[in-house]
Amino acid sequence: MPPLTAPKSGDALFASVDRVNAELFTLTYGAIVRQLLTDLEEVEEVNKQLDQMGYNIGTRLVDEFLAKSNVSRCVDFKETADVIAKLGFKMFLGVTATVTNWDAEGTSCSFVLEDNPLVDFVELPDTCQGLQYCNVLSGVIRGALEMVSMKTEVTWVRDMLRGDDAYEMRVKLIKQVPEEYPYKDD
Ligand code: MYR
Q1: At a CB cut-off of 8 Å and minimum separation 6, what does 34 contact?
Q2: Which of 105, 114, 99, 90 is nearest to 17 (CA)?
Q3: What mean pLDDT comes out for the span 60-84?
Q4: Span from the CA of 186 to the centroid of ligand 1 (angstroms)
Q5: What is the pLDDT of residues 144-174, one digit of tens each?
Q6: Bridge partner list, 125
Q7: Distance, CA of 139 to CA of 134 (rounded, Å)
Q8: 70, 128, 131, 179: most buried by Cβ count inside 10 Å?
Q9: What is the pLDDT of residue 117?
Q10: Residues 106-143: pLDDT tens digits?
Q11: Can you tell me the distance from the alpha carbon of 70 to that of 73, in angstroms, rounded to the nearest whole number?
Q12: Ligand 1 centroid – CA 4 distance (Å)
């Protein structure tokens, strides 16, 4: 696979993204979080729900990603992480992530976001300090990776809404499920 360079806004690949109003997207997500807080009351339950919503989205998003990006199968988790950071985030969130903090086995890494459109206009009140506001994103990554046979755990280790200097999502590969050949050999 050739070296990955992040496409620019306006490239044909991202023409559809340019049509989406980022503020509407951000405000809609904020309204969903607010409604969940009202309905579920417990912040932990809201965190779970956001993660599950993201997971459901991720399982569907991956098809669109593969169709639009023409990315071929990655050779390993490292390559997949690079593809997600440079192309996946760009395609669906309009920003790129940095892949860093690999463990020695090459099975855990972090995606670092300096810029996160999901949190524009957001300030967490004291009553919401345990809220993982961006859990939808970690859920998306988990869901998308499961669709390409990678079972992962995804957690937030840095969060600017909690005063950190960036957003850092830790992705740990739990197991790689071999894909089943869909036909019986006779
Ligand atoms: C492969 O090995 O088959 C390629 C795998 C590519 C997986 C790409 C998943 C895209 C996820 C989009 C992330 C969006 C974040 C907002």
Answers
A1: none
A2: 90
A3: 93
A4: 34
A5: 999 999 999 999 999 999 999 999 999 999 9
A6: none
A7: 9
A8: 131
A9: 92
A10: 999 999 999 999 999 898 988 888 999 999 999 999 99
A11: 10
A12: 13
**Does ipTM come in above 0.85?**
yes
Q: How far is the CA of 143 from the centre of ligand 1 (A)?
A: 9
Indicate the SS3 state at residue 3.
coil
Q: Read off the DSSP letter of residue 104.
A: T
Using the 8-state DSSP alphabet, how is residue 13 labeled?
G
Of 20, 53, 74, 150, the residue with max ligand 1 atoms within 8 A of its CB, to mutate for a pocket test, comes to 74
User: Which residue type is seen at 120?
Assistant: D
Q: Determine the distance separating the centroid of ligand 1 and the alpha carbon of 170, expressed in angstroms.
A: 15
Ligand 1 mutation target, pool 25, 29, 62, most atoms within 8 A of CB: 62
What pLDDT is stored for residue 25 in this prediction?
Answer: 87
pLDDT reported for residue 65: 95
Give, for ligand 1, the residue of 50, 51, 65 to mutate: max count of ligand atoms closer than 8 Å to Cβ: 65
Sign of CA pseudo-dihedral 132, 142, 33, 159:
positive
Measuring from each residue's beta carbon to the nearest atom of ligand 1, which residues come in under 6 Å? 61-62, 65, 71, 73-74, 80, 83-84, 88-89, 92-93, 137, 140-141, 144, 148
